[in-house]
Specification:
Lectin_gal-bd_sf; Jelly Rolls; 4-stranded antiparallel beta sheet; single chain; lectin; 2 domains; 12 strands; 5 helices; alpha+beta; EVA1C protein
Length: 214
């Protein structure tokens, strides 16, 4: 169980140069959740993915180290999101227009492994959040947010007191929820600044959103 949870909570990353395969894989009962992606080149080839062109040609063509493609995240979502594993060959044709022909590029991808069955619970500021599992099962926390998200939350509508709609989140919410609830059959915690600190401007209403599985 501990090994399964450590794999679920871990942030994975992978990279592949042009002409190589990228391969993402998640453990049993979890699926890929893409966090972010980059395709292009922002470091010189002697640091990552050496040029495949002959040295004489490489010296004639100035390498572009400010080259990126805006479609890489959507491509990774299309290919891999919600699958147990995925693999494909990396080349510029996959991503549409080549922004820097003659420069060798690479793909970087960051992902998590999300449990196939998970629950989501929300508590508005100063309310108590209770989590529980059936007998012989224990709580595994997947993610936790305390603060205010850009789109707001339907269960905790914000009163607009002239405050700007900005996003602010506690950096310690996940660690705190793991410490309080991880491996227990049930747990409770107040969605309060006393527990989580205040990541927002004073007066901004916050909420606690926890995703977990049993």
């Amino acid at each position: 169980f501990a090994g399964y949870i450590s794999q679920v909570l871990k942030n994975y990353s992978d990279h592949a140069c042009d002409g190589e395969y990228v391969s993402l894989r998640c453990p049993h009962r979890t699926t890929i959740s893409i966090q972010s992606s980059f395709y292009g080149r922002i470091v010189p080839s002697h640091q990552l993915c050496p040029s495949r062109y002959p040295h004489s040609y490489a010296t004639l063509i100035k390498e572009d180290v400010a080259c990126s493609v805006g479609t890489s995240l959507q491509k990774m979502l299309d290919e891999c999101q919600d699958r147990r594993s995925c693999q494909f060959l990396v080349n510029s044709r996959l991503f549409g227009m080549d922004p820097c022909p003659g420069t060798g590029k690479y793909l970087l991808v960051w992902y998590k492994c999300r449990p196939n069955e998970y629950k989501s619970k929300v508590a508005c500021e100063d309310d108590k959040l209770r989590l529980s599992c059936k007998k012989s099962m224990v709580i595994a926390i997947y993610s936790a947010i305390f603060g205010r998200t850009q789109g707001g939350n339907l269960e905790c509508p914000y009163q607009n007191l002239g405050m700007p709609m900005i996003e602010c989140q506690s950096a310690t919410a996940l660690q705190l929820m793991i410490k309080r609830c991880h491996g227990k059959r049930s747990c409770s915690i107040y969605a309060s600044t006393y527990e989580f600190g205040d990541p927002c401007y004073p007066g901004i209403q916050k909420h606690l959103n926890v995703i977990y599985t049993c």
